[in-house]
Amino acid sequence: MSNTPVIGVLALQGDVREHLIALAAADAVARPVRRPEELADVDGLVVPGGESTTISKLAVLFGLMEPLRARVRAGLPVYGTCAGMIMLADKILDPRSGQETIGGIDMIVRRNAFGRQNESFEAKVDVKGIEGDAVEGLFIRAPWVESVGAEAEVLAEYGGHIVAVRQGNALATSFHPELTGDHRVHGLFVDMVRADRTSESL
Questions:
Q1: Does residue 88 have a pLDDT over 70?
Q2: Are 93 and 111 in contact (CB under 8 A)?
Q3: 149: helix, coil or strand?
Q4: N or C, which end of the chain is more exposed by having fewer CB within 10 Å?
């Protein structure tokens, strides 16, 4: 078995191309995922930033929501950025009408918590598990985590708010590392996927 994992990027809406580039830079085979049969062929999945309400509705429309939930429940490694973090939350504090999530992390998330589009900013974030300098985090209409359950591990905080969380094979960040050229968070996720594949093959 090749040790190069195949990682999908949920390609319904958002910054898909940037994640494909970042994953390739982190030594993964990256491909877009739009259909259930494409989801079945990946070792891990990234849920990108974008508009969480739109991603939710399109996932239902494309018949992906239930397969996504089933695979995440079964332990598929998954990484969500910004809107992707909202999609991986078990609960949203202020959901839009009809908005659904995939779930997977026992956390409550507040949408657009850091402000509107014109209040976007870049900041250095110390992320647990990533060596070297702080990660350059780009916050665009970013959520933050109001609270986490006992099984969720807080990896980073900024301005007194939780901005990176991991629970088992699920990872989420409020910010967009794929837009800064710093691929270390993607590298962390690729390592999670490799570890999962190794444990399955034993």
A1: yes
A2: yes
A3: coil
A4: C
**Contact indicator for 52, 86 with CB cutoff of 8 Å:** yes
- 16-25 and 184-201 are packed helices; what angle lies between their axes, rounded to 10 degrees? 70
Kindly report, residue by residue over 11-24, the tens digit of the pLDDT: 999 999 999 999 99
Q: Is 128 helix (H, G, I), strand (E, B) or coil?
A: coil
Q: Which two tokens stand for residue 93?
A: 């504090």
Structure tokens at 110: 């507040």
Count CB atoms within 10 A of the CB of residue 108: 14
Q: Look up 82 and say whether it is catalytic.
A: yes
pLDDT at position 2: 66
- Look up 178 and say whether it is catalytic: yes
In this predicted structure, the answer to whether residue 1 has a pLDDT above a threshold of 60 is: no
Phi-psi region of 91 (alpha: psi -120 to 50; beta: other; left: phi over 0): beta
Catalytic: which of 178, 183, 186, 200? 178
Out of 19, 176, 183, 186, the active site residue is 176
CA distance 102 to 86: 9
Burial class from Cβ neighbours inside 10 Å (0-12, 13-18, 19+) for residue 151 reads: exposed
Q: Helix axis angle, 65-73 relative to 52-61, nearest 10°? A: 100
Catalytic residue among 18, 82, 183, 186: 82
Phi first, then psi: what are they for 35, rounded to 5°?
-130, 155
